[in-house]
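Worked Example 4.2. Read the sequence first, then its structure tokens.
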Amino acid sequence: MKSSHLIFIFICLIILYSLFKPSYILEEFKSLQADQLLENGYLIIPNVVSIEECDDILSIIDKVESSHNDCGNIHSNYKRKDMMIPVSLVKEHIKNIYCRTKDIWKQITPNAILTECSSLISYPRSYPQIWHTDTSYKKGDANLVSIGVMLKDTDKKMGPLNVYKKSNKLYKKDIDSLLNKHDVDSSESDTFVSDVQQGLYKQTMEELCIKLNYKKKECTGSKGDLVVWLSSVVHRGGANNSNTSRPVFYFSLLSSRGTRPQGSTYSLIKQKKKIHLKQL
């Protein structure tokens, strides 16, 4: 048999396997992604949202911005905008994203409640945010996860989401003891520095993460990729040193198991809207 025939047969077998591969392999892969998220505090899932869907979400964001421009209060808001998006306008997109990755959320946020539905845009020359967590956690608190859609190809110059890998485990430790043990100064930074500039200077949580050897990850990716982060992970939006804006559409899911952790990312709940994913 000629080598060209063997290559053809091999390619056919690969195609057949990709079409009919056992479902348990896909389930194990999704379970592995969920484990990675819980272990590292963040996850990047490529090629979830199509280019056309991204463009439609961008057009929705433009319409909302031109109509009411209802922006939230965020860290380091200079040239950075966090804007609520009505769920009714994007619910089909949320449903599609959820269904394409549902095996992950079934494990991490069972019977999920939608707590946030917003866009986050950082414009050219925006400062980096301060390092922060979205919530403070204690034993028995429910998982809260934010799912962002990269609406443009995103490189390091555009100031993508930065995280300290595995820093989501800090809430299980005594922070004050760690600060003393590693000789980290927990005093406030220069009081003459404005909030929008705080991210330019070294901060307590940043220094502690460095002392604990947590690795910093810049979450770059392509248009249509998902970037996912736990509310307990230390993170920030980076400085946008490019000549283009970095738009992200994101929504947050709260598990129905456990108590609600203290913190932000609850815009819909604050409006007395309790939306279960199954209601969309």
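Now turn to a second chain, presented in exactly the same format:
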Amino acid sequence: MGLPCQRSTLLSQPCRGWIAAAALLCVRQTDAQTAPEPTIWIDALQSTQSVNLAGNGLSSTDQSFVYEPAAFNGRPAFLTDGLSLYFEGVQLNAEATLFAVVQSDADFQTWGCIFWHGDHDLDFGLERVGDSGDMNLQTRNDNSGCLIPNAHGQPTIWSGRIDAAGRLFSKITSVDGALAKEQSTGPCQGTASGRPSPGVKRVAVGSNAINRNEKFNGLVAELMYFNSALTEEEMQQVEVDLFHKWLADDPPTQGCTGVDCGTGGTCEDVRMCAWVANN
């Protein structure tokens, strides 16, 4: 493809000082960070088992995000199956960035939420618009600005950011093996209204953050949330990296060690091996 190894340094951060809820979950609970490191990171390629949700506000020990080893374009993912994850006490800032690598099922609920942080409808989230085919990067109860159509059963990377200037919202898919990007044209208002309203608040993955209703039903392959605004260049680097990890035709080679990218960096993990080897 003629691309250099664009391995984003944002995807190489260890869980320094974080609370690791499991091998695949890294959560920084109360840090009002400004450095571009993920606040929440879920990655199915870092796990080989389901995520037991007992103790996460659910009492039954058999309720889990079910690990599916090859359900997402030949890659592993977690089947939410009507369930959701809660993370309590996570710092919400006035600016935020989200990447969600997901595939929705046909039973994606009305107003179903892939992600929500803070006060519902008002702070920051990614949700379906009613029972329509559109997804919305939402703040300040605005369901009319940042809209992009969603297709059930299609592996998709959703990329979104809010800052003072507005909301930047994109959808990335694979078309004939190539990266295809669709971007919302707005209007996508920013933080001038005072939303998101900073504070230590709950995060939900797979439902709203109120009562676990309005569920996203489908597959979650990877989710990265920053409580800061990445630059457009940083976002593009992450988008390209996620595309080659999850949507490129060849699944990642397992069991591969570090690969010298030849561009002053190293692709440390197995997810990049197939891409580096073929380019």
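Notes for the reader: The chain is about 5% helix and 40% strand. Residues 232-246 form the longest helix (15 residues).
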